[in-house]
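> Could you send the RNA polymerase sigma-70 factor (ECF subfamily) prediction when you get a chance?

Sure thing. Input:
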Amino acid sequence: MTKDEMDKVATFAASRGKLMSLAYRMLGSRAEAEDVVQDAWLKWHLADAGTVRTPAAWLTTITVRLAIDRLRHLRMERQSRATGWLPEPWLDGIAPSAEDEALRSSAMSYGLLLLLERLTPDERAAFVLHEAFDCDYADIARMIGKSVANCRQIVHRAKLRLQREGDGRRADRKPEPVVDPSAHAQVVERLRAAIEAQDRAQLLRLFTEDAVVLGDAEEVDAGAAIASARWVDQVSSSVHAAGAVTINGMSGVALLSANGAITGLVDVAGVSDGRIVWLCVVSSAGNLREVNATWGARAVMRLLKRIGRAEPVMC
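Output:
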């Protein structure tokens, strides 16, 4: 490998965490984000690095444009599905990767990631770049190929649309006040404990009367008490255990089968007065494939076997 090739590899490696985090927020899928970042690497590998004044900005621009193109195709595919679709959750690692660190530094809750699905690809790109990565409008304009004034208007319009969509998800109720992380974590822990104990009565008490439950594996009736009661009955009869996890930087719950496989990830996306108003349940095999590969029982067993084979350290 030549020095120029090694420099290219090093430059890309330094930006990869940010690119992965950006692509994930744009696409709502870790696998899709990895594909986009791989495509960005191929373009960088073929580019004449000598003509690129700011490699990090060049890579960010390429990634944004690839993600916008990919999102346009994905929106059509997701809208045509018979079942629901939810973003793929991102679980924090015990030993955070560069992607995990980049995700934390530009934190967006899972609930907000879900609302971003309502935006057009250009709106989503501009909003994510401005709100999560603190890019100014001149940089955003260069990346998405629009004027500065247009980008400012796009972000403003996206904020209004997200506010409208967020307010409307609860049957035109007023928006709930922002809940601090500790209060949110307490509600999540009560939910986890009730699931673990299979306490149906306590589970039902955790939901407001007009709570909304969204799922990705099947059509979930967003009919207030009916939806929450139906989900409570399902989780009470099928879940073997429930563990605490961190989903997109916030407390969540992992539903476990008897063999230790993760069968669902539960995100409490809305809370009011200590009760759940909006719940997201990710349980499709596709969205849980990466999670189980990293955190499921089989992954843990593989890790234990590697540890068991390791040579003892001599002091």
